[in-house]
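User: I'll paste a sequence; please echo it back and then give the predicted structure.

Assistant: Echoing your sequence first, then the prediction.
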Amino acid sequence: MKNIIIGTAGHIDHGKTTLIKALTNIDTDRLEEEKKRGITIDLGFAFFNLPSGKRAGIVDVPGHEKFVKNMLAGVSGIDMVLFVISAEEGVMPQTQEHLDILSILEVKKGIVVLTKTDLVDDDWLYMIKEDLKETFKGTFLEKAPMIGVSSITKNGFEPLIEAIDKLSDEVEVKSASSAVRMPIDRVFTLTGHGTIVTGTLVEGHVSEGETLTIFPSMKEAKIRSIQVHSESVKTAYAGQRVAINVTGIKKSEINRGEILAHNESMQVTSMLDIKLKLLKHSQRELKNWTRLRLYHGTKEILCRLVLLDKESLVPGEECFAQLRLEEPTACKYGDHFVIRFYSPLETIGGGVILDPNAHKHKRFKQDILDELIFKEAGKQDEIIDNLIRKHSESFKNMDEYVKLAGLKKEEVLEQVESLKSDGVVIELSKNILLHKEFILQKEQEMLTILNDYHEKYPIRLGIPKEELRNKLFPSIKNKVFDEVLVQYDMIKLHGKYISDSSFEITYSDAQAKMIETIKKTLNDGGFKPATMIEILKDFTKEKHTKDILLNLVEVDELVRISDAIYLTKEVYDKALDLLKSAFEDKGKLSLADCRDLLDTSRKYIVPIMEYFDTKGITKRVGDERMLR
């Protein structure tokens, strides 16, 4: 069954609440003060079934200028509006302000409902309708049905219900597959149940037993039970008015304006990049750093305006800007908002959020403005491309980019797959995304580091891998670094050392002679080799002995058993084969057995067997050893 949310709008005393009661038999004025004063102060809620079987939830909003803040909270997430105007009075101040607000929020569907038609004659009604046509010209209500009704006699109700039903067919279905998002418009406690939050589920679906997060406090709330239009359900879907019984959190810890959502679906922010438009009939010229009131979802936030491409903003103009919020919130790319002047309170404009997780910008920076231009164009591939290019240094994963983009996860996944297939983006393990430009940039940095290192240490195989990681990517782990290195074909790996692929060590004649002497002496010594100190006594003038020995070990020509004892790879392999064969034959061998097998002495067999132990080849069992 399709669900739609209808909002009311219009000036005070034009009959919004009476109309809803006549439609649904529900009195949306629930507060004692509302009944006493005869005016709507806060949001009211009702519902009814349309002839086609669709269920319509209704949010009744206050019409008094003092309660515009509550009205703004109510029209968040509505699919269509019943724009109520008294046939007696016609257009009034809140008529215009409510129309401005709905236009800014880009509500696209609506019906103009002329109430109290039983109190006026036909000539007056004709004149009011003509006046309204002029008022709505150029707005989303220009071609909207205009239906006269009487909430007392019910005259006009049949065509009104038919019009609502017909228009509901044109309402775009909200995405139930997206991450849950419900701006909270009411919090209260119910005896025997605890804390209840209500709101319009604008995205996703929520089920009993789930644990969600309250943004921006980031406190967890477990879903105990759910009601939709006073009926208990296991799951609620986008497009429904929902009451949720939450546990693990107190009423005092939740406020109207906060958002119930999946923990990983959004990011808390105190800065928003926006496209802002000032109403053409506003009386305000906005300067940089003007203090304003932001209305987003069901929340009001004080903020400062930073104009990014203008010195000032005059009525009817639009610009790119940044809002510096005085308290944190969470939102998504493409969300609409309303701006009101700080004092006196008046609606002056609004717009769309282009970056819900912005960084502080300097004004008049062309690169920032260019970025906002294509974000405004809504080119999602460019938005994701730019985000990954911008944040590759931080090695963020897919979920983090979903938060940064403020888009639906499936939209981000689709764009990432496209960028990957084009070779623009590379995905590592754990869904880490890197931009090709970042890889190329780091390639240049890496080459510079390697060339400097080779110049400084011409006899070393290369820079230690850990040292290179710390210079280039200090925040990532070795496993991720190994994945990054695979992207580069201009390097060579020698165990734990890295060099430029074109780098080759060139030994001097003296160094070559020393290497030849080392290998020959060790081969001749077999399992009783001369110590390295003894071998090098004729090469005391060589400054790079330590580096040369390291190189020989890394290229697998020598095996370093201890500081003093080295074996050539050939001798080492022979010792290993003899010992393995004996272990496989006898199972266990004593140190003396191993010594005799290799025809060596305790001086050598002790460090050799300890080396095998450390390499995991053998293990000690009492006074004997066996293969591990």
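The longest strand covers residues 318-329. Residues 436-456 form the longest helix (21 residues).
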